[in-house]
Amino acid sequence: MTKSVFQKDLLTPGHMGCPGCGASLAMRYVLEALGENTVVVMPAGCWPTFVGLYPSTTLKVPVMSVPFATTAATASGVRASLDRQGRRDTVLGWAGDGGTFDIGLQALSGAAEKGVDMIYVCYDNEAYMNTGIQRSSATPRGCWTTTTPAGALKREPKKNIMEIMAAHRITYAASTSLGYPYDVMNKVRKAKDLSGMRFIHLLAPCPTGWRHETQLTLEVARKAVESRVFPLYEIFGGLEWKINPMPVKIPIDEYLDLQGRFKGLSLEGRVDFQEWVDREWAGIQDKCAHSQAALSV
After folding, report:
1. Is 132 exposed, middle or buried (0-12, 13-18, 19+ CB in 10 A)?
2. How far apart are CA 60 and CA 111, in angstroms?
3. CATH number of residue 249's parent domain
């Protein structure tokens, strides 16, 4: 019998997430890696609805639910309070793409600039899912949402949050995907062993918003990596870039075809999407090559 990777199980059964929810499984992975001495700070979004109504909770760690824009600011205060008490609990800022790329970016930038000793995880489902699947700046170009309907699909590419965080010269930034559980947990454990600001960009598909079958969540997350829509890499100190082991590259269609949110994308749009993915992937490869060359001098 295969041994479960989950030994701590700090996320209990009975949460209120949708069937196949990537965000709920993402939390399970992350808390497995961090352990019980973790304080979670989360803003409005999908996750506070999962936790449950007081006095019930689905998490076995302390949780603070805060206003949408204040995740990193509140987490900074929690860190300062714990330090004053001489406690080394891990402070986990936990927000979706809306609370990270958009509404919470100012507070996140402030905490990053100060080098606050915390781990910030963005569980990225590429839209404001909890309030009705509205587009965010993490929503890909050519994607359907309720605010980018058929005939008016999103025109702008996804914001590059990893480069934004790297520009702050934070200790550690890493991209990871729900489809690769060991990669998720290994990067979170690596972040736990470091100090200063650490940022994890975690792709967490949403069957409801992405319009894919609930049992395909992990497959969609894997194909995002295989197609290079969401490559796996790390950035140390904002300057040292490292690509992680990657699977064989597949065409973008194998990723797009699993999701109803891209069914309105034209053939020309698919070609543009593939070209954008290839450019972004080439850019990451170049940065990694240049940083490694600089380190060898």
Report:
1. exposed
2. 26
3. 3.40.50.970
